[in-house]
Amino acid sequence: MHTEQHFENEIEHSLLTEGGYQQGFAKDYEKSTALFPADVVAFIQTTQPKLWARLEMLFKDKAQDELIKALNQELNIKGSLNVLRNGFRVANRTAKMAYFAPNSTLNETAQQQYDANIVKITRQVITEYNERIDMVISVNGIPVSTIELKNEMSATGWTVEDAKYQYRKERNPQGKLFEFKKRALVHFAVDTQEVYMTTKLEGENTRFLPFNRGFNDGKGNPPVENDVRTAYLWREVLRKDSLMELIGRFLHLSREERKIRTDSGFRYITSESMIFPRFHQLDAVRKLIAHTKTHGAGKNYLIQHSAGSGKSNTIAWLAHHLASLHNADDEKIFNSVIIVTDRVVLDRQLQETVAQFEQTDGVVQKIDKDTHQLTAALAANVPIIITTIQKFPYVMHSIQTKAKHGEHISLDTEGKRFAVIVDEAHSSQTGETAGELRQVLNKSGIEAAIAAEFLDLDEDEQADIEVQKNILREQFKRSRQDNLSFFAFTATPKWKTLALFDEPNEQGETPFHSYSMKQAIEEGFILDVLANYATYKQYFRLLRTADSDIELPKHKAKKELMRFVNLHPSVISQKVEIIIEHFQSVTRHKIGGYAKAMVVTSSREAAVRYKLAFDEYIAEKGYEGIKSLVAFSGKVILPEQTEKEYSEPSMNGGIKETELPEQFDSDNYQVLLVADKYQTGFDQPLLHTMFVDKVLSGVQAVQTLSRLNRTAKGKEDTFVLDFVNDHEAIYDAFKPYYQRTALGDIPSDEKLASLGNTLDEWKIYTQSDIDEFANIWFSGRTTPTNNEHKRLNAIIDKAIEKYQHISDDPEHNEEQQKLFKSQLQSYLNLYLFVSQILPYADSIHEKRYVYLKALMMKLPRGKQSEKLDLSKMAILQYYRLQQIGEGSIKLNEGEAEPQKGSTDVGTGQVSLTEELDKLIKELNEAFTTEFTLADQLFFESVEKFARENPDIVDAANNNPLSSFMDYFNTRIDDLLVGLFEQFGESVAKVLNNPQIKHKVCRRLAKQIYENVHLEK
């Protein structure tokens, strides 16, 4: 199988001989409708002869045309998924376009209709834009999937990356075959090693998700004897029965209302996305369903899926399948499926997902009132019931009581079977709920395990763990009930959960199914929170190194941290100084200036003391742009202040506990101080840094640090500064959930320099390349110009050319390329860690980092090198703004042409105009600010800087004042950033307050406009 054609042959042969497919022909594809009309007609004629007869009676020889016209119209309005499930209207009748497998074998007609589906594989389909598609899969004439194949063993050597490139660059997203949801529902990029998929083509912004089985608990696919690693795609996933089930019972159109951040605040937008299961989701649901169908009720399954695994969708699909599951005797296995969860989003997702599969109401019911509501739902055999962990004891009580009488409601559970899906707690639990629950639950058996797992109850530490496990198993054997099956979802199971949810997988082990933290990190769904983890000793050893190195320039903001080098922070006030200074010098510049931090305190009293010290230090320093919220339960009285009572709302200025997450999500607050709250289930993607002042171990350590792992645009890394724990304890805690390599030596500036030198010695780039790139990239503009884009690409291209020809021997060349790439990635990773502590300023490392990051992005992943559009590389863009914000790169050094501004504006004695004097007074009166003489010089400099810009002068000369004001508003950010080095505080005052910025912009625009016209 040495060519792509051979690869295509193999897949086609498998689908035709084993997969239940029929052979399709490219000539039958109609470009104008993106359909296979002959198959549409054949399906209708076979399965709905009366409808076809009606069409022929009404339209005579135009019957086919009218049928295709009506189908095309409905597809363009409702989309192919809707039409395949629900049919379309033609000649005042509903035409079905697919029949799905019946839940039981009782209905012979349903089975015959299902067998009549025409599923075809067609090769080399040519679209209206002359795009040649390797493979198109169609159901009854409607395309549902496209496949781009690459074979690394072919002459081109192209890989799955080249297939993705093809979809992004060479496929028109508005083409009839590719337009979102209207025809093909999923697009696969495939080679012999990996599979990626997307449900929406968006040009360069197309997002591909891995659709791989996972290998050694990580990404990729395991080797397969006598076959390629990706054979599961056509031998299992794309088989006719599997494909029809995916269309009928998995794929769904999700409508999500998202809150997005804009310059003027937050606004809500509604977006649509087609959800196709990732491989582990499909695999988990199918294996659980197959096992349950064979073995019936009375089993307990553990599904250990990491954060980032998409548990909400997995649970929704599982519940939907369980609710209609029949055994081999065609008996329904479960009367009801009960989901125990605290995820608010899950209720909406379930309702939405199931509504697309079911034509009847009442399939999903949420229990949000009382136990009578629950009892009635169980009595009525409601297929899917959603309840919370707090109501769970009542669920158990209702099920286990054979007859319950109360206020004229009776429930008879005799002969009824239930599936209970338990989802790990997804909101903060205070411990009070746990105490109440423990009183209700019995001390042994499944309920206690669920309570311990999902409410963080204390374990009985007196007995040996193995002894406890054996006792627990014996107790549970006596209480296990054949009418109940439990499906427990958790990323971090405790030993009690592993002991009780003990149904073994195919290898005879528990958990029944897993998706590891390692795989989620490697596939890019979560960040690795241990990548930049520093203990207090390590943090200050690095700072001490920096302080003693006279060659290392010091950044003035980071100099504040030097005062702590020889200080052991034994009291909270000292730690608060360290935390705030680190936040000011590092954290606040991350994620484009939106990064937030969490401080994990050891007790409620500690949280109160932290909050008091935080507010005091910020006020003393006069810092702006950093405000904190505190989270703890109940009320606290400090020993030295017995007359005063502290509570969370009172310390947060009246913000209610329920409002805290939304307030913290706003731009008003940057740091969250917590005591036993928000350490599990709190989902805030902008959390970047965590300061730990509490002993952490085991599951608690994993759950706490994992608050940082959510991804966000521009979020490249995370950082942890731990005052209390050591590396070994934290790594031991993570080991059961993510097998990591052994902890090496502590990273250092010396190692970074050594690795940098190793890269330099490859001679793939020169120092002048780095300087030239940095001078353009850090030029001070918010966004690079088109000309700068070209220059940046040209600089990187020189290195790409050398990289592609390291050696004349092709085999050796490939080995050397891999080695260089590996060393390059190591440097980038090490820099991210060390740079968060060491006070680099103007150093070679910062210039080298941004150059090498761009180089890594542009290095060929397949055989085709991509053009690098740096303005769209969010991480580099944010990094650039971060460095400008820190002032750590002098903007006009090096050989590139200097940008006017920083070196020659505002440096001499300037006269103060009357207008600017008025502006200062107005600002101070309106906004209670304290603009001073230095600020007056700043405003004068902005005006001068603007008048030296020919574009701005031209705009003033050729437009009325109102139009010029609008134009000037688009240029003000660039002008201010260009003056940041001279007037950092003044720039911050203006940029951080939209009202001030608006007023300044209008007044300056007017003055510039008048002065330009005076000079005419």
Explain this structure to me?
With 1016 residues, the protein is of the alpha/beta class. The chain is 45% helix and 13% strand. The protein has 39 helices and 28 strands. The chain has a seven-stranded mixed sheet, with helices on both faces. A seven-stranded parallel sheet has the order 14-15-13-18-19-12-20, with helices on both faces. Strand 14 (364-366), helix 13 and strand 15 (384-387) form a beta-alpha-beta unit. Helix 29 (767-777) packs across helix 32 (844-858), helix 31 packs across helix 32 and helix 37 packs across helix 39 (994-1014). It is globular. It starts with a helix and ends with a helix. Mean pLDDT is 79; it is low at 402-411, 425-446, 455-463, 474-479, 548-568, 739-745 and 862-913.
What is the secondary structure topology, with strand pairs?
Blueprint: H1 4-17, E1 22-23, H2 37-47, H3 49-59, H4 63-78, H5 80-86, E2 88-90, E3 93-95, H6 108-115, E4 119-126, E5 132-139, E6 142-149, H7 160-170, E7 186-190, E8 195-198, E9 209-210, H8 232-237, H9 240-249, E10 252-262, E11 265-275, H10 279-295, E12 300-305, H11 311-323, E13 336-340, H12 344-357, E14 364-366, H13 371-379, E15 384-387, H14 392-400, E16 403-406, E17 409-412, E18 418-423, H15 432-440, H16 446-455, H17 465-479, E19 484-490, H18 495-500, E20 513-515, H19 517-522, E21 533-535, H20 536-548, H21 556-562, H22 572-585, E22 596-600, H23 604-621, E23 628-631, E24 635-636, E25 646-647, H24 648-651, H25 660-665, E26 671-674, E27 687-692, H26 698-705, E28 719-722, H27 727-734, H28 749-760, H29 767-777, H30 786-804, H31 810-834, H32 844-858, H33 874-886, H34 914-927, H35 933-947, H36 950-958, H37 961-978, H38 984-991, H39 994-1014
Helix pairs in contact: 2-3, 3-4, 4-5, 10-11, 11-12, 13-14, 21-22, 22-23, 26-27, 28-31, 29-30, 29-32, 31-32, 34-39, 35-39, 37-39
